[in-house]
Amino acid sequence: MNFSFIDEVFDPLQKKLVKRWVLELPGAGCEWYKKTGGCTMCGFNQSTYKFTFGGHLYPHFIFMLLFYYAYSLVKKQKPEQLVIYNGGSFLSDKEIPLKTQLAILRFVKKHPTLQKIMVESRAEFATPEKLRQYHPAIFGKKLEIAFGLESANNEVRNKCLKKGLGREVFENAVKDTKSFGFQAFAYVFLKPHCLNEEEAVNDAINSIRYCFDKDIDEVSLSCAFVQKGTPLHALYQRGEFQPPTLRSIVRVIEATHLFGPVRIGSFDDEPPPLAKPSNNDDTDLLYEQAIHLYRRTHDVKVFEILMPGGID
Ligand code: SF4
Fold first, then answer.
1. What is the CATH number of domain 4-306?
2. Residue 166 C-alpha to ligand 1 middle, in angstroms?
3. Which of 39, 112, 249, 256 has CA atoms 20 to 30 A from the CA of 209?
């Protein structure tokens, strides 16, 4: 598996394609997963456990060795942004040592071409104390913190998806993040297994509206796919769950793109999905091409151009 590479993504805040360094760091694994068995749709723990001998926290120097080795693989391509995925919360000291978190921020601060770093975290770790430590370490460059909200509906988020996240915790994290001059990003999930297709589309639209009402800068629509060993996999095997259709994804984007920048998350991950979004008919290729183009432009016109007669 390639854990350090460059891709090109559309940055809706800058309205252009940017060269992004994607780095997968072997954090000790999501604390929420360790405490509770994790969120219904999440398969991160499997890769995390594989690369950390069962969720072990490596010392700072190991992280930095890996980090500089990873950097040597992409250095020549002069990345503009860095995104770190650690299968949990970058801001949690039990998952990534604090010293490592700050060293990486300082690296970006001093770097000649990197302008921004994005990291993921559960909302409860974005405390004023933590953000106060981050502020001088990244000052002058941009930091974006991505929070998994999944759904604005409390029942869906906590009962169905088992997220264990209060709205107040999310709203405070966003407020604090913004008050330190950082950007806030949210993941919204399409489709939770407890909702039918129509309900899931409406839930995603309402959740995206809620995110922008709460001052989130960008949203990414995480479209359900099935990974081996997750609770979703068990439902899928029993015929009780199907990922959303590609039509539903387009409907959500068309309904929300005026609220603020909405990305469409990748349908690939580690471990590789066993089932992913599909119309289950011969329109898949056309829709996939349209979605691919949307990811590179954030222009909803790509849906009209590629599908004369409109989207049903
Ligand atoms: S979705 Fe996030 S919070 Fe939930 S188990 Fe996975 S890594 Fe942890």
1. 3.20.20.70
2. 15
3. 39
Report the atom number in ligand 1 closest to the C-alpha of 163. 4
Residue whose CA is at the smallest distance from ligand 1 atom 8: 30
What residues contact 293, with CB distance under 8 A and at least 6 apart?
Answer: 299, 302, 306
Q: From the CB of 146, is ligand 1 less than 6 Å away?
A: no
From first to last of the 312 residues of the chain, give the pLDDT tens digit.
589 999 999 999 899 999 999 999 999 999 999 999 899 988 877 666 667 767 789 999 999 999 999 999 999 999 999 999 999 999 999 999 999 999 999 999 999 999 999 999 999 999 999 999 999 999 999 999 999 999 999 999 999 999 999 999 999 999 999 999 999 999 999 999 999 999 999 999 999 999 999 999 999 999 999 988 888 899 999 999 999 999 999 999 999 999 999 999 999 887 889 999 999 999 999 999 999 999 999 999 999 866 655 545
User: Does the beta carbon of 189 sit less than 6 angstroms from any atom of ligand 1?
Assistant: no
- Return the best residue to mutate from 122, 147, 270 for the ligand 1 pocket (most ligand atoms within 8 A of CB): 122
30 lines ligand 1 (CB under 6 A): yes
> Atom 7 of ligand 1 has which residue's CA nearest to it?
88
Q: Is the CB of 79 under 6 A from ligand 1?
A: no
- Give residue 237's identity as a one-letter amino acid code: Q
Joined together, the tokens standing for residue 105 give 């921020």
Domain ranges of the chain: 4-306
Angstrom distance (rounded) from CA 144 to CA 141: 10
Residues near 243 by beta carbon (within 8 Å), at least 6 away in sequence: 191, 223, 224, 225, 226, 275, 276, 277, 278
